[in-house]
User: Which sequence fits this backbone?
């Protein structure tokens, strides 16, 4: 039996990944501050195990408590494999350095970087004591590899996530485990995050017009398309641990 855990599964890419995994008959645990009731109903209709946990991923104590409970519950069932999708992310704050508030800076780093670190650490720790292999999929961004005006915090948190992914892969290879980890850059999608970006001011984000054009010219990809390509790659097992994969390379 395979189990999948998805953070930020209530909407956008996370919800699309969850729906596709239900189609693949994979038991599902979702984690976010709000629950997507449609996912629950869809899982029930397909007779698939489904569980939701409420968690504020900017709170490290809450992360530890919730994910310890999830890990204990899943690992005691001795599944053959656990798929861990660290998908939740926040784009804010969008503004130039010198004009930022402290609270959103801290929340961004906690959700985008610290939460995946804590969750991955916990699951790989538990995997040492079992025969279960863990696949970790960290959702990153093209912003991890280039500076973007107004996005200094987001760029930095995603760059950190990429390096974390590469380092964990190196360590797991050295230890000769069956665990794998990858990062996935989904590109520009028609999600709530894009809506937030489009409400920025020109002063805060000088590329605002380009992002409005993405929407106006229907360039934004549907999350279902992106999720399908990602899940195909993950379930194939045919990927290089530690590598950062880009949606443009999977949809050729």
Assistant:
């Amino acid at each position: 039996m395979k189990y999948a855990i998805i953070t930020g599964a209530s909407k956008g890419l996370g919800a699309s990944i969850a729906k596709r995994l239900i189609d693949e008959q994979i038991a599902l645990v979702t984690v976010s501050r709000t629950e997507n009731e449609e996912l629950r109903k869809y899982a029930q209709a397909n007779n698939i195990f489904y569980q939701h946990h409420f968690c504020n991923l900017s709170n490290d104590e809450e992360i530890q408590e919730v994910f310890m409970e999830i890990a204990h519950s899943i690992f005691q069932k001795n599944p053959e494999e656990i798929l861990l999708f660290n998908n939740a992310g926040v784009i804010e704050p969008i503004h130039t350095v010198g004009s930022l508030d402290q609270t959103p800076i801290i929340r961004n780093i906690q959700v985008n970087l610290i939460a995946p670190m804590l969750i991955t650490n916990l699951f790989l720790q538990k995997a040492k004591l079992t025969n279960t292999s863990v696949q970790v999929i960290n959702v990153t961004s093209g912003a991890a590899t280039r500076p973007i005006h107004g996005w200094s915090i987001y760029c930095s948190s995603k760059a950190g996530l990429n390096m974390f992914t590469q380092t964990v892969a190196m360590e797991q290879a050295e230890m000769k485990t069956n665990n794998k980890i990858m990062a996935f850059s989904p590109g520009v999608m028609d999600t709530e995050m894009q809506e937030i970006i489009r409400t920025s001011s020109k002063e805060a984000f000088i590329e605002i017009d380009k992002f409005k054009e993405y929407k106006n010219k229907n360039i934004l990809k549907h999350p279902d398309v992106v999720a399908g390509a990602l899940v195909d790659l993950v379930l194939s097992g045919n990927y290089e641990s530690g590598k950062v994969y880009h949606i443009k390379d999977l949809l050729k």
Notes: DSSP finds nine helices and seven strands in the chain.
